[in-house]
Write a structure and sequence with these properties.
The protein contains 19 helices and 12 strands. It has helices at residues 32-35, 42-57, 63-71, 87-91, 101-124, 135-170, 191-209, 224-239, 247-263, 303-306, 324-329, 334-339, 390-405, 410-423, 434-448, 455-461, 465-468, 477-481, 490-496; strands spanning 7-8, 11-12, 77-78, 173-174, 188-189, 287-293, 321-322, 340-341, 343-345, 351-353, 363-364, 383-389. Mean pLDDT is 91; it is low at 1-29. This is RagB/SusD domain-containing protein.
Length: 504
């Protein structure tokens, strides 16, 4: 058989069992040439795939930090009023290639690291031929081949996910499916080609080869349903800006979402707040795919201080505050009570309401159960970084089916009402008017996925940035240049000799 080896940051991983601890998250593995040169077995291939999830995490200030900052371009969050806060450039829709360089450099490198690792695994992992002299031997051989296919499908899922983020953030990007190709020197490829030649084919293969229950048994690795959730999101985005493929692709998004609803056996977690509890994150709940953060296993999140206010009893960093204008539109209920902190204890022993606090803003409370029982105690914390949930599937079907047909069917209405019922709102949506229903579903996505890295991408694909960011959009770089892209890192531009996105 082919041979295989792994290293982490220059150090070899000792592999003594077939059991993979998915919380260990090895950094990744070596080059495709080296990967092709050492003896292969399924446990090592699975460990290689597991390394892709740590590449996605990419440090305490990697994925969860940079994607949260990108989402500040939407309307749900505001920045701390501290001097020279460069996050304001993003909030005001005038991203700076220099002042915000850490955001572009980190996110760009983050996703390309995942793609490079996935390319190596996809190209370097042949699926064993089915063999055996007896029925039992053939059955065992088939099971082994399925495991190999499933692991390669994980790599395809991760490659598609990374390309999906890149095209939405940066537009035209390199088409690279061979890890021996230097990304830095490839030409930019049109967004449509990236979708049609890499993202969609990878996800169709992932949907076919991933098991219905993920390798880990919960959301730290993708299942078939996670792949379908991502595929439906891709179709939904292709239907809107910038490709604007319209009803055909809304229909595709609805079809895939309905397949999940009808055949997965999944359901909403009964209590919204339980989704964010440290003690429950490894349950087989509605999280379909997420980064499972762990301080002990050196894959911490940045939630420990970022969402706490500066005058909190254990002073927070106040990286992000809740937008008071958005809170004013947010429907009352258990979900709202869980998602926001409107008063808190201070270091002086008093309790302060947000209006009277040092910075004068309310806080997002969704990510506050992760600090080993001591709120705001440490910069690094545990937790879960959500990427896809079953709620996503329900609301996507509701939105896509209506936009595809101009009609609100009973399933679409139930999907929306199920989300609202769990949220504890006083009034459920009952309209079957297509336009009114669309407004209700789009609003519900914002409420349900508060601070989950989705709002900016939703505003962009539906071309609603001007509507929901009316304070900043008229004088923004994005309006002036007729696009919603961020700047490609200047180092990459210089290396490849590209022209950056307009305005940067």
């Amino acid at each position: 058989m082919k041979k295989l080896a792994y290293i982490t940051l220059g150090c070899c991983i000792a592999l003594t069992t077939a059991c993979v601890d998915l919380d260990q998250y090895p950094k990744s593995f070596i080059t495709e040439e080296e990967y092709n040169g050492i003896e292969q077995d399924i446990s090592k291939v699975e460990l290689a795939a597991t390394g892709l999830y740590k590449n996605l995490w990419n440090g305490n200030y990697g994925f969860c930090c940079r994607m949260m900052r990108i989402d500040c371009a939407a309307d749900q969050m505001v920045s701390s009023p501290k001097p020279n806060n460069v996050l304001d450039y993003i909030i005001q829709l005038n991203p700076s290639i220099s002042s915000n360089t850490a955001d572009w450099d980190t996110s760009w490198a983050n996703f390309w690291n995942v793609i490079t690792g996935a390319n190596t695994l996809i190209a370097g992992t042949p699926i064993p031929e089915i063999s055996g002299a007896t029925a039992a031997e053939k059955e065992a051989s088939e099971k082994t081949a399925k495991r190999y296919k499933a692991v390669v499908a994980e790599a395809r899922f991760m490659r598609a996910l990374s390309y999906f983020y890149l095209v939405r953030m940066y537009g035209d990007i390199p088409y690279v499916t061979n890890s021996s190709e230097a990304i830095e020197y490839q030409p930019r490829t049109a967004v449509a080609d990236i979708y049609n030649k890499i993202i969609v084919p990878d996800l169709i293969e992932a949907c076919a080869s991933l098991p219905t229950v993920s390798r880990s048994g919960f959301s730290s690795t993708p299942s078939q349903w996670a792949a379908k959730a991502l595929l439906s999101d891709v179709y939904m985005t292709m239907a809107g800006w910038p490709l604007k493929l319209g009803k055909e692709y809304y229909a595709k998004a609805a079809e895939v979402s309905l397949d999940i609803i009808e055949h997965s056996g999944l359901s909403l977690t009964p209590v919204y707040g339980d989704l964010w509890k440290e003690a429950k994150k490894e349950e087989a709940n509605e999280h379909l795919f997420a980064i499972h953060n762990s301080v002990a296993n050196k894959v911490a999140s940045q939630y420990g201080k970022s969402f706490y206010p500066r005058d909190y009893v254990k002073a927070g960093w106040a990286d992000y505050y809740a937008n008071p204008d958005y809170i004013a539109t947010y429907p009352e209920g258990a979900r709202k009570e869980f998602n926001y902190m409107t008063e808190w204890p201070t270091a002086t022993g008093t309790t302060v309401k947000w209006q009277d606090s040092q910075d004068g803003y309310p806080c997002i409370a969704k990510y506050q159960d992760y600090n080993q029982g001591v709120a705001g105690n440490s910069a690094q914390s545990n937790g879960i970084t959500p990427i896809y949930r079953y709620a996503d599937v329900l609301l996507r079907y509701a939105e896509a089916s209506n936009l595809a047909t101009g009609n609100v069917n009973a399933t679409a209405l139930k999907c929306l009402q199920d989300i609202q019922t769990r949220a504890g709102v006083s009034t459920l949506t009952t309209t079957t008017n297509s336009e009114e229903f669309d407004k209700a579903v789009f609003a519900e996505r914002g409420y349900e996925f508060l601070a989950e890295y989705k709002r900016w991408f939703d505003l962009v694909r539906r071309e609603k940035v001007s509507e929901f960011k009316s304070k900043y959009y008229p004088s923004s770089l994005m309006k002036a240049n007729s696009h919603y892209y961020f700047p490609i890192p200047s180092t990459q531009i210089k290396l490849a000799g590209w022209t950056n996105n307009a305005g940067y």
